[in-house]
Amino acid sequence: MSGLRCTPISGRDNPHVSENKIDMSGHGWWKKGDCSNNRAKVLNCIYEYFTDHSWRQQACSPTKELKPGGGSSNRTVARIKCRTFQQTSWRNHVEVDVIGELDTGEKPMNQAKAACRAQ
Questions:
Q1: What confidence score (pLDDT) does residue 73 get?
Q2: What CA–CA distance (Å, rounded) separates 119 from 110?
């Protein structure tokens, strides 16, 4: 059955403190991989690491219908204000759903430390 599914390439950056210096953010985009269609619904969410060894979702982007490629006008943005500026681990997960095609269900992520705590 998996041979009938295409595999898009899910693009994401490391979670990072935004240029405004007060928000944590992460971006999501996609590339076609072996998929045929040129539109996909893309969603990304950022997760903060807590001292109880859990990852907690802190913010998600709106789901956007995007063409492949990325770039500042062709991506999703998840963002949350930093409450303090202590070094913390973050993850940025991205989900891509190619429109009109069955695709694989990976939700890849990037992880990085940044000087931001949201909770």
A1: 84
A2: 20
**Which residue's entry shows tokens 């430390």?**
113
Over residues 3-10, mean pLDDT: 87
pLDDT at 4: 80
DSSP, res 75: S
Q: Positive or negative, the Cα torsion across 114, 117, 10, 104? A: positive
d(CA 108, CA 100): 21
Distances (CA, A) of 95 to 26, 29, 44, 48, 118: 13, 9, 6, 18, 23
Report the distance separating Cα 119 and Cα 102, nearest Å. Answer: 37
Distance CA 80, CA 90 (A): 12
| Among candidate residues 5, 76, 64, the one with its CA nearest the CA of residue 40 | 64
| Chain segment 40-72, per-residue pLDDT in tens | 999 999 999 999 999 999 999 999 999 999 888
